[in-house]
Amino acid sequence: MDNFTYHNPVKLIFGKGQIAQVGRDIPKGARVLFAFGGGSIKANGIHAQVVDALGQAGLTFVEFSGIEPNPRYETLMKAVELARAEKLDFILAVGGGSVVDGCKFIAAAIPFEGDCWDIVAKRARLKSAVPLGVVLTLPATGSEMNAFSVVSREETGEKLGFGSPAVMPRFSVLDPESTYSLPPRQLGNGIVDAFVHVLEQYLTQPADAPLQDRLAEAVLATLVEIAPKVMATPPDYQARANLMWCATMALNGLIGQGVPQDWSTHMIGHELTALYGIDHARSLAAVWPGVVAVRREAKRAKLLQFAARVWGLTEGSEDQRIDQAVAKTRAFFESVGVPAGTIAAGIPAEAAQLVSARLSERGGLPLGEDGAIGAAEVRAILEAAA
Amino acid sequence: MDNFTYHNPVKLIFGKGQIAQVGRDIPKGARVLFAFGGGSIKANGIHAQVVDALGQAGLTFVEFSGIEPNPRYETLMKAVELARAEKLDFILAVGGGSVVDGCKFIAAAIPFEGDCWDIVAKRARLKSAVPLGVVLTLPATGSEMNAFSVVSREETGEKLGFGSPAVMPRFSVLDPESTYSLPPRQLGNGIVDAFVHVLEQYLTQPADAPLQDRLAEAVLATLVEIAPKVMATPPDYQARANLMWCATMALNGLIGQGVPQDWSTHMIGHELTALYGIDHARSLAAVWPGVVAVRREAKRAKLLQFAARVWGLTEGSEDQRIDQAVAKTRAFFESVGVPAGTIAAGIPAEAAQLVSARLSERGGLPLGEDGAIGAAEVRAILEAAA
Description:
The structure is a homodimer of 386-residue chains.
Chain A: E1 4-6, E2 11-14, E3 31-36, H1 40-43, H2 46-56, E4 60-64, H3 73-86, E5 90-95, H4 97-109, H5 118-121, E6 132-136, E7 148-153, E8 158-163, E9 171-174, H6 184-202, H7 210-231, H8 237-250, H9 264-276, H10 280-294, H11 300-309, H12 318-335, H13 342-345, H14 351-361, H15 375-384
Parallel strand pairs in A: 2-9, 3-4, 3-5, 5-6, 6-9
Antiparallel strand pairs in A: 7-8
Helix pairs in contact in A: 3-4, 6-7, 6-8, 6-10, 7-8, 9-10, 9-14, 10-15, 11-12, 14-15
C-alpha cells in the first residue's frame, strides 16, 4: 500500500424526503445560482421541491437551466456571466453528473482571473471557488462526493477534466425517489459508469492492499446483485437507494487510496464521446473489452481475483477463467441495455487511428496504471474492443 | 436502508514518514498542547519526531503526559487547567485510542462553562471545542476518524461516552511504522477491537443494505487474513499498514450508515472494564459470545451470512453453521492472544448481577439494535458468555 492523504469533507444527506431540508445547509443570506439541465426536474417535481425548500429558508435565488450532458464550456460560461452580474455567492446544482461537473467548473470560473478555459486546459491552480451544494437526481458519476469535473468545448471538440478540493460540494442530497422518473437508458448507464469507475481503481496490479481490494469487490458485487431490481418497474426504493450509494462509493476516492489506478478506459472513452457524441457510460463499455484484451498479461493476477471474487469463477485454467470473467462482464453491461465493445456501440473503425492521434497530440499519453499505453496501444485497444 | 447523514471531514494522512509533516496541518501561530500517554513514545522515537516537526513549523507547544488507558476524568482535567492557564488553542494527541479519546474530552472541556463531567454524564451540547489533530500509534479504536470518546471517572467507577462533530480531529497522521514497538498484547487487542466494532454494526438484522453488508465483510475478512502477519516478528510494514486502515475503516462511521447497530457488547464490556480494569478489547471478547448466544434468534439471518461470507461456512444445518462461525470467531480472538468468553478472561460470576444492576441504575438499558436487552438479558448474556 502506498502513502496517501484522504480528505473528503462532503456532507452526504441520504434518503427520501431530504430535498425539503436543502435550505438548511446553505448559508443564511446567500444569493444562490440554482443550476440544472433540461426540463426533466420540472416534469418530475424536483424543481418545485427545490424552489419550496429555498423559499422556506428565505434564500434569494436565480435559475440557470440548459446544462447539457457532457456539459459545454460555452454554456457554462453563460452561467458564470450571470453569477458575476447578479453577485451570486452559492451554487446549487440539481441534476446528474453533468450538471454537477458543470457547476464545479462554474464555481471555479466565477472568481477566476484570466481565460477560464485554462482551468481545464492548463489545470490552472485555483485560489478559490464559489461554494457548491448538490441535489443529485442520477446515480452514476460520483461527482457528488469528489473533487473532479469533466467539461467539453464545442469549438475545439475537446473533453477535458480538472480537479480541486475547492470545488468539492459542501453537501450533496441523495434522494432515491428522485431517480424514479429516469428512463432505463440512464439507469443502465449509471450502473455501468459506477462499475467501470471501480474497475479503473481495482483491475490493475496487486499492491498488498487487501482491504481496498475487498471494498472495490463489495461495490462490484452489489451492483451485479441489484442491477435487475434497479431496472425493474415500478421503481423499487431499496434498489434505487443501493444504486445511489454504490455509485457514490465507486468514486468518492475511498476505494482507490494507496493503490495503482488505471483510467485508460475513461481517457479513451472521453475521446469517443467528443468525436461521436456517445453517452459517457456507453463509451466505457465500448472501450473496456479492448483494454483487458491488450493489457491481459499486466492485469492477469487481478483479472483472476476479479473472476473468483466477483463472478465466482474458480474452475478451469487461468485463461478460461479470465475469458469467462470478461464474457460475464460484457453480458452484465448488455443486461442493463448498454452495448459492450465498439461494434455494438456503433464506433467506426477509423476511431482507432483518430483517438490515438488526438491523445498523442494533446500530450495525453501514456495511459494506464504503469504508463504502458502509448499511441500504438490505444490503437490496439480500440481494434481489440470489437 | 434508512435515511442517513454522513459527514466525516477528518483529513487522513497515511503512510511512512508522514509524522515529519505534522506541523503543516496545524494553523500557523497556534499554541499547541502536545498530549500523550506514558513513556512509550519517548522510547520508540515518536516523541522526538513530533518535537522536530513542531519545531520546524515554528509552533509553540506545551507537553502534557500521563493520559492512561481508559483515560480518567481526573487526569484530563489537569490538562484542561494547563491549557486554560497557558492559553493553548490547538491539541495534538499522540498515542492510541485512549489518548485520542482523552484529548477529545480536553478539547470539549477547555471552553466548556459549568461542570465538565456534564459533557459525558449529561451529554451536554457543545457550543465549541478546541481544534484537535492526531498522531496515531495504536490501530484499534477508530477514534482518529470519528466524533466519539469514552472517558472514565475514578471517583465513581463510571466509564461513559460522548460524541460531537466539534471534537472530530482536523487531521490524523497514521504511520504504520509507529506500531513497530507495540507489544503483542496491544496488537491483538487492536485486531479484536476493530473486528468487534464491525460486528456491532453488521451482526444485527437484514436491512436491504447489501453494500454496507459487503463493506463490513470486507473489513472482517481482511482482519482475518492479515492477523497472523500482524502478529509476526520482525514487523511487516504492509501488514501493519493494512491493520491501521482496517481499524480506521471499522469505526469511521461509513459501514454503519443507514443500518441498525447493536453496541451491546461494548456497553456491557465498558462495565467490566470499569469494575475489573480489564483491557477494552478483552472485555469485548469476553462478552461477545454471550451476546450471540442470547440473541441468536434475532440475529439468525445475519449470523448465517457472517458464517458464509466471512468464514466460508456453507455446509450443514443452519445451527451447525452458526455454531461453527461462533467457534471460529472465538478461535480467531484467541489466535491473537485475546481470551474469548468470561471464564478465560477471568471475570467472576458476580459480574452478571453487578453489571446488570449498574446499567439499570444509570438508565443505560435497554440495549441492542432492537432495544430487546433489558436487565434480565444482560445477566443472561454474562452467564452465557462463559
